[in-house]
Amino acid sequence: MAGNSIGTLFQLTTFGESHGEALGGIIEGCPSGVVIDFDFIKKELKRRKPGQSKIVTQRKEADEVEFYSGIFEGKTTGTPIGFVVKNTNQKSKDYDHIKDVYRPSHADFTYDEKYGERDYRGGGRSSARETVCRVVAGAIAKLFLTDIKITAYTSGVGEIQLTKKDPIDFNEIENNIVRCPNANLASKMESLITSVKKEGDSLGGIISCVIENVPTGLGEPVFDKLHANLGKAMLSINAVKGFEYGSGFEGSKMRGSEHNDAFTSSKKTTTNYSGGIQGGISNGMPIYFNVAFKPVATLIQKQTTINNKGETVEMQGKGRHDPCVVPRAVPIVEAMAALVLADFILLQRRFNS
Amino acid sequence: MAGNSIGTLFQLTTFGESHGEALGGIIEGCPSGVVIDFDFIKKELKRRKPGQSKIVTQRKEADEVEFYSGIFEGKTTGTPIGFVVKNTNQKSKDYDHIKDVYRPSHADFTYDEKYGERDYRGGGRSSARETVCRVVAGAIAKLFLTDIKITAYTSGVGEIQLTKKDPIDFNEIENNIVRCPNANLASKMESLITSVKKEGDSLGGIISCVIENVPTGLGEPVFDKLHANLGKAMLSINAVKGFEYGSGFEGSKMRGSEHNDAFTSSKKTTTNYSGGIQGGISNGMPIYFNVAFKPVATLIQKQTTINNKGETVEMQGKGRHDPCVVPRAVPIVEAMAALVLADFILLQRRFNS
Amino acid sequence: MAGNSIGTLFQLTTFGESHGEALGGIIEGCPSGVVIDFDFIKKELKRRKPGQSKIVTQRKEADEVEFYSGIFEGKTTGTPIGFVVKNTNQKSKDYDHIKDVYRPSHADFTYDEKYGERDYRGGGRSSARETVCRVVAGAIAKLFLTDIKITAYTSGVGEIQLTKKDPIDFNEIENNIVRCPNANLASKMESLITSVKKEGDSLGGIISCVIENVPTGLGEPVFDKLHANLGKAMLSINAVKGFEYGSGFEGSKMRGSEHNDAFTSSKKTTTNYSGGIQGGISNGMPIYFNVAFKPVATLIQKQTTINNKGETVEMQGKGRHDPCVVPRAVPIVEAMAALVLADFILLQRRFNS
Amino acid sequence: MAGNSIGTLFQLTTFGESHGEALGGIIEGCPSGVVIDFDFIKKELKRRKPGQSKIVTQRKEADEVEFYSGIFEGKTTGTPIGFVVKNTNQKSKDYDHIKDVYRPSHADFTYDEKYGERDYRGGGRSSARETVCRVVAGAIAKLFLTDIKITAYTSGVGEIQLTKKDPIDFNEIENNIVRCPNANLASKMESLITSVKKEGDSLGGIISCVIENVPTGLGEPVFDKLHANLGKAMLSINAVKGFEYGSGFEGSKMRGSEHNDAFTSSKKTTTNYSGGIQGGISNGMPIYFNVAFKPVATLIQKQTTINNKGETVEMQGKGRHDPCVVPRAVPIVEAMAALVLADFILLQRRFNS
After folding, report:
1. Rounded CA gap, B204 and B224, in Å?
2. Which of A348, B81, C21, D303 has the most CB atoms less than 10 A away?
3. Which of C1, C31, C353 shows the shortest C-beta gap to A350?
4. Which CATH number characterizes residue A342's domain?
5. pLDDT of residue A334
């Protein structure tokens, strides 16, 4: 209830700071009997891992997850799954120089205002390192959601944006380090990130996600609509500034006669501006949405800012940082989508007598 | 927990269908001693009311709220506030012809898939008539939030969009029936709605919102970030397809060096691409965000669709409908923002010893 | 979250004060398709109703419930069920004399300490009149729990206690006005209540409850154990001071060799000291428990007490009050049991794929 | 939401099985700035630890807690506190013989019915080993509740019960291994446990608890009454069968004129049958309650039972078990009381502007 849990029946609660002893979490409500493929979990973690390519942060983290409960003889037991990811490469010293400094567009100032106390090392709790727990839990949610296919990909890096006329191939996504389903654009995005990194500057971008084979009936109106909870889950990811599903912001410019999705006799629709959701409930068509990420706040440039006394100070990002978070955030978007869907599936089962 | 509540400490739970006896709700957790200005609540309801102008639905509803508890001698007592809004103008007969029909881009099909049973009259629970309860609760939240100023307005109707170069004046908003802070654009939007209405077609649009005088420290990372809960609240409003705050989707194209908000010595920032929120917590700068609405699904045109047996049928919207929901949704956006802020203020008080 | 809701998936939220306009509630999560027998609900309300016999309060209340939503053509639709019970016989004037007085062992003082503001008429929110909403919701839960049989009865009034050697007959319960399943004891209890009433004094008592035909697997360890949530539900009823299930307090004096319930080959047990619950989960045997009620705090005698300035004052109960709440609390105990079971049944369904 | 969390704002979520890798939990919502006395936490754990005396289980567990987050430079930061207690002395082999056996009055059968899968080693999740997490969290809650004094003690072991005429001295509690505040009775209880242990049998008992210096205003009627949540917390402890507060079950035999607590001019009461709680809210007088524990189900005797095929089998408890859980449950009762109070204190702060 205090901000570190997500989900009602399939629920993740997390703990952990960027440079503390460890991060971890508790997955509650995963039904019993789910076969746990530990290699799959490792693979998911590897997609998010620092140091995976030349365009991401070079922090070296093992990112090995230890499971402490809830799994017995390779299957879930229905009891809570406790897990821990130890921090192994904390260069806390890197952060002594910013102990009292409020970095621009970071959460240093707001955490101080909220809590009074703060673990300043590497952003502490506000660091995106926290998302490692989301990927662990999301991987387990995916193992539960055997029939549903969730595919996220990079559709924008800075000004380079995938448009409707660019062909996409989901098989291409993991073939390039930006995770774009169009090899040509992927290569342009990679070049852009490389060049912006050299300048010590940073980039934002957009991740798109498609969810296929969703059963009908998921979502809990009027407040926990499927897209409302999806949107919240995405907005809770570090650096996210926007969420749109189906026709999204562009849809607001259309006429109803154009936007309405006509039903076919097989209870599918000919178009899918609804994005697979009507009245907050899945209609069986693919769900798709976009998530906007702001450019990374840490720059390898000198910046003027203030310290906690309000005095003007100069600072320069050291540490090891991503010039663009989007490539590593792709598995995080998928993980959050999996958690939301798993929760709605369990909620909907209350109507199965 | 089952979708009809929002908020943790300042919580609204609602009930009611479009053409049932009544709608209503329970507001839990409003602190005691809040002076209830019943005229203000009426005024807020009037801004949402059907029939308020020629460009909205002509359904005639008194929209009178009756309070049954939690208010004593003009002040809240801290106990739950129960309220009811009776339906007075239910023309249920209008809906007999769509009893078994799945209207395109409505929730008829998905409600049937989810629940099996459905009050088909006027959309039942999926109707935006439910938002009358949100406006009642939002008005009470506003009375609690005496120092915070929440201003929503229409910034887009179809292809007509307010841009950065158009001057805006908040005093203008209630002077025109589309609720646009620029009189010139307001008049264009009004014309567009009128002409599209004549064609029996419908429009979408965008509502923008600015929240001023927000205390620092509001928001509960890592999942209940201020913008994540705001986003969810907005996405839970009928017809909403997207949410962005601060620099939003456009921000994803910027460089970090351009996007970072520099601090001044007074702990304010020179720019505000962060939209008043850093790390999910308010920083004291104005919060601002945009909400995208799809075009209304009900058309006064013939449409081909299916019935609940999957048979193709022809249907035509009768009933009384808005050609564009945006003008009436302005107070709803404000209400949801007020509810989210009230909740975060109470949550933050747990740290006040 | 703020004290006026119970249940996770089958959830009741209530509002209302003793002498306000109305009381009511919202039942969320009741599955669709439950046939609503309105006569049954009336009958349940009648069992709790004031004025039903000479040994209960003579306040005259119609106690008619109006349903506003969630029921369509006689069946639930799965959407929230809003309901209201109007107060028709508020003699608020009766309470002017205690406006500033803290009645002994009432909640006047504590409500003032907690909220600062208080509707003093008839105890306001702290009045047991609030339980009318519990009986409405419990009746609907019972209609959902078609196979489960919940039977509560009076097993103690003051010093008169049903013992193991007294024969009991559930058919007898509604044949006498104290609701005791032994006619002989019932008549002694009735006499005791009548005589204590004449003295202007009051009595406590005990209600026992048996739940038969419970499916196995209900309960959510480790915190939401079946008996833990049952206990909480009972302790939330006005005037309750204790809860025990199965062997209860007496069981604490037994040896393990005597207390252990041996399994039979049909997965039943020969004894049932466990009270149908092992490890917080139902085992299919009958659940049984006892609930202790304190003597009513309102006396028709002069009492010395203090007012809100801490000054000593004399007061005398006027109003209309029960000399013993136990007979009218029998349906309330059943209602709370029904709500808890309905919730656990829905929770358990999350494991039914 | 699925049974492994307790509390709304000060919330504990736990994981872990008796013979898994580790147990642990997440404490959410502990305010920042609480100074963590690690020696105090160790001391609390020692009071619960197996092997602490000759009358408790001889399982050897280090019971060392590792904190992974939420504490920085010796103080809480307001972010979630993740902690782990490794299992070091799992003799899982001890349990191979009961893999398919349903031990009488244990949770083997019910866990199988509920979840289908089960970690059978040492009771798995249903083992009281889980309470180690409660003691860790309770210790932190106590460090937060600096002004409130919580004292639990053994008041009954089998048929030996502390009565009102037995003098008690809280300083005596930790001087004897049963934790009884009367040395004479303590010695009798110890003898009883020793002799029953020799017979391979087991005992139940009663723990009483007194909470002093409680602020007024704690508790959230009508469902989350202070005693309702206390009762639930106690009933959630392994082996608990009953809870009563204030005058309890005995109070149900009293007359109102005798039971009412008269106010003094200092807003205290002359008697305290209310147990410090009126209308579900603390009134500033000491809170006191009793908790009944059943005799331990594991006997070192031969017992006939069934296996998961319903076949009759003979079994004999091996493993290492307590003949009576009451002495070790004293710190657990205190821990749960501390968690409940900490939560209500944070909830009440929402009314402090």
Report:
1. 29
2. B81
3. C31
4. 3.60.150.10
5. 98
Cβ under 8 Å to C: A residues 8-37: 8-9, 29, 31-32
Number of domains in chain A: 1
Other beta carbons less than 10 A from residue B141's beta carbon: 29
Q: Is C335 helix (H, G, I), strand (E, B) or coil?
A: helix
Interface probe, candidates C232, C267, C298, C305, chain D, greatest D C-beta count within 10 A: C232
Collect all residues of chain A within an 8 Å Cβ-Cβ radius of residue B244.
241-244, 249, 292
CB contact under 8 A, A2 and D20: no
ipTM exceeds 0.90: yes
Helix (H, G, I), strand (E, B) or coil at C235: helix
Average pLDDT of span A223-234: 98
Please tell me the distance in Å from A126's CA to the nearest CA on chain D: 10
Enumerate the β-bridge partners of residue B212: B149
Cβ–Cβ under 8 Å, residues D107 and C279: yes
* DSSP codes of every residue in A167-226: ---GGGGGGSTT--SSHHHHHHHHHHHHHHHHTT--B-EEEEEEEESPPTT--BTTTB-H
Residue B18: Cβ within 10 Å count: 23
D149: three-class secondary structure by DSSP: strand
Per-residue confidence (pLDDT) for residue D80, from 0 to 100: 98
A40 touches chain D (CB under 8 A): no
Q: Which residues of C289-302 are buried (b: 16+ CB within 10 A; e: fewer)?
A: bbbbbbbbbbbbee
Residue D179 is assigned to a ligand binding site:
no
Percent of chain D with pLDDT over 70: 98
Distance (Å, whole) CA A17 – CA C206: 52
Residues of C in contact with D251 (CB under 8 A): 204, 241-242, 292, 294-295
pLDDT band at C319 (very low <50, low <70, confident <90, very high): low
What was the pLDDT predicted at C353?
A: 75
Binding-site residues of B: 48, 54, 125-127, 238-239, 279, 294-298, 320
Subunit contact B263:A158, Cβ cutoff 8 A: no
Q: Which residues of chain B have pLDDT under 50?
A: none
Nearest to C81 by CA among C2, C12, C3, C143: C12
Supply the range of the domain harboring residue D248. Answer: 5-351
Residues B345, D293: Cα–Cα separation, whole Å: 42
